[in-house]
Specification:
Shape: globular
Strand content: 15-25%
Structural class: alpha/beta
CATH topology: Purple Acid Phosphatase, chain A, domain 2
Oligomer: single chain
Order of helices and strands: HEEEHEEHEHHEEEEHEEEE
CATH class: Alpha Beta
Radius of gyration: 19 Å
Strand order of the largest sheet: 1-14-2-4-6-7
Mean pLDDT: 89
Distance between the termini: 30 Å
Number of strands: 14
């Protein structure tokens, strides 16, 4: 049911077409200047109270740090990543979750329009060697992040596109514990918080979490994936119940035009385009993420680091 990768290239080109043609033209022509602001230099620490049904009392006010779409590479400096990670660290979270896309191997065409590359450290490497170089730079930054109940994550479409073995070997070795179609359980007395990772909807081999259909009496279930489109299948299928689903991938549109919005969120189900969507079966939260792709710019759409506080519905 969850294995679907046929539409990969079509999906990828949707965002690329918009960002390269529509957004670049709009920004350079000044179409979005009035009533807009360039938000590439901002990171918002967004604090969200996530109201979950049947939440065990032991997990009241439990805090989860959510990061996604770091896209470290040519457009991302080490200071930028450090700033995002420090926001989570200073927030005093119990657990940290990464929703994938740790790197971006950039297209050379964009240098024609943006000749100033913020991070030139990777330009010396040939295209095929950039992923490992980016991961080597990212590892010491990620190693500074600590949380009492651990740091877990999943892979995104960019991680699968560019040397996925390096991502699993370097990032998933001692830095982030990858939950690729598997779950971990965090105990609090008799209560349990189950964190289940699902592989990327486009480029991975996503599988339904191997859990009983119904949660146990003192169990709260949180699902983590990169592309939120998979929650359409999980919510409609009814094959497994969960309380919250977390994702990234959309960048919140990255470039949001006044009166129009973002023409592309790179997903089918726009209910999950940005922020919180309350479904009768579960709460779905999609973060705008930290980095950018294609263009080194955000308009009316600042980068986001999220702290989710669990409360009883």
């Amino acid at each position: 049911m969850l294995e679907c990768g046929v539409r990969l290239q079509t999906k990828a080109m949707n965002r690329r077409d918009f960002l390269k043609l529509g957004a670049l033209t709009a920004v350079t022509a000044g179409v979005v200047a009035r009533g807009s602001r360039i938000t590439t230099a901002e990171i918002e620490l967004k604090q969200v109270r996530l109201a979950l049904r049947d939440l065990p009392r032991e997990f009241y006010n439990y805090r989860i740090g959510l990061l996604s779409d770091l896209h470290h590479g040519a457009w991302s400096t080490n200071d930028w990543v450090e700033n995002a990670l420090s926001l989570v660290q200073r927030a005093g979270v119990d657990l940290v979750l990464f929703a994938g896309d740790y790197l971006w191997v950039h297209d050379r065409w964009v240098e024609w329009f943006f000749p100033t590359i913020p991070n030139q450290a990777f330009q010396q490497f040939p295209y095929y060697a950039q992923p490992r170089a980016i991961y080597d730079a990212l590892i010491p930054l990620l190693q500074t992040l600590r949380a009492p109940d651990g740091v877990f994550g999943v892979m995104g479409n960019h991680d699968h596109w560019y040397d996925p073995a390096a991502c699993r070997e370097l990032i998933g070795n001692d830095v982030i514990t990858f939950l690729t179609n598997r779950s971990v359980t965090i105990p609090r007395g008799e209560a349990r918080l189950s964190i289940s990772g699902i592989d990327d909807y486009w480029t991975g081999l996503p599988k339904r979490p191997n859990l009983p259909i119904h949660p146990a009496r003192n169990e709260c279930r949180v699902f983590l994936t990169h592309n939120p489109d998979i929650y359409s299948l999980l919510l409609n299928g009814g094959e497994v119940e969960f309380h919250a689903g977390l994702a990234g991938h959309t960048h919140g549109g990255q470039i949001v035009l006044p009166g129009i919005g973002a023409p592309s969120y790179n997903i089918d189900d726009r209910r999950f385009k940005d922020g919180l969507f309350s479904h009768p079966k579960a709460q779905i939260y999609t973060t705008r993420g930290v980095g950018t792709v294609e263009l080194p710019i955000r308009v009316n759409c600042p980068a986001e680091v999220t702290v989710l506080e669990l409360i009883s519905a």
